[in-house]
Amino acid sequence: MDENVKQKFTKLIEYQKKDIELRKLNAVLERDDALVSMNKNKRAFNEAKQTLVDCDQQASGLLEMYGELQKYIDDNEALLAELENGVGDSEEELEARVKRLESLKSKFQSADKKMHDVDEKSKSVCKRRADALKSGKAAQQQHAAAREKHAALVNSKAAELNKLKAELEELRNSIDAQLFGEYKKLVEDNKFPPVVNASGDDKKNMYNCGGCGLNLPQKGNAMLKENGYCRCENCRRIIVLLK
């Protein structure tokens, strides 16, 4: 490998090593049990909050329904009193009053059933609301405790994290722009690490990709031997043979 090219890849590999360290550190923070607990309890709190909204809406609807039923009953009671206290009616009017009374009886039975249903639904809504308040408060407390633990972990890793970021920024300025562009593209395509060492038989000049393990074709082996690097035809990673 040409010495100038070797220097470029050496810098890029050095950058990649730091990049790997930073990713591992970020993975530790992202997989922290306290963070998992925070997210879990945040979802639980939001679900409880939505349940409260739903219960309040249902309660409002039930109150409205109760008011309508109460008015319906009051109107029918007034009509019933009017019919029961009627005097001096003719026989035809009396017969019509009896029919209306029978009709009112059926309506009262229907209204009574609806009132019972409203009562049962009200009890169910009240229970759901009370449970949601309890679970929401518990989730809020657990979220706060988990947040404190996660913050402590983040603070303990802050110096190391900032150091790696600074080192990466410094190295970035010393890397060939075109080569770094290829590196970034491979990272964006989830090909990490983007730069891998060739593995295989040095004597026979037969190599494999250190990333996906695929045997290199004759053209790839020739490029690797001549230039010290090539691209894997399968995973597109940059394969290097630093000698």
Task: Describe what you observe in this structure.
This protein has 243 residues and is mostly helical. The protein folds into two domains: 32-175, Orthogonal Bundle (Helix Hairpins), CATH 1.10.287.1490; 180-240, no CATH class. The chain has five helices and five strands, in the order ααααβββαββ. It has helices at 3-30, 33-84, 91-172, 177-188, 218-227, and strands spanning 195-197, 199-201, 206-208, 229-231, 238-240. Strands 1-5-4 form a three-stranded mixed sheet. Strand 4 (229-231) and strand 5 form a beta hairpin. Helix 1 (3-30) runs antiparallel to helix 3 (91-172) and helix 2 (33-84) runs antiparallel to helix 3. The longest helix is centred in the middle third of the chain and has 82 residues, at 91-172. It is elongated and about 125 Å long.
Secondary structure: number of strands? 5
Helix content: over 70%
Give the integer mean of the pLDDT values.
87
CATH class bucket of the largest domain: Mainly Alpha
Tally of individual domains? 2
What is the CATH-assigned architecture of the largest domain? Answer: Orthogonal Bundle
Largest sheet: 3 strands, mixed
Query: What is the overall shape?
Result: elongated
Low-confidence segments, ≥5 residues, pLDDT <50? none
CATH fold title of the largest domain:
Helix Hairpins
Query: How far is the N terminus from the C terminus?
Result: 7 Å
Strand content: 5-15%
What is Rg?
39 Å
* Content-based structural category: mainly alpha
Order of helices and strands: HHHHEEEHEE
Strand order of the largest sheet: 1-5-4
- Count of alpha and pi helical runs: 5
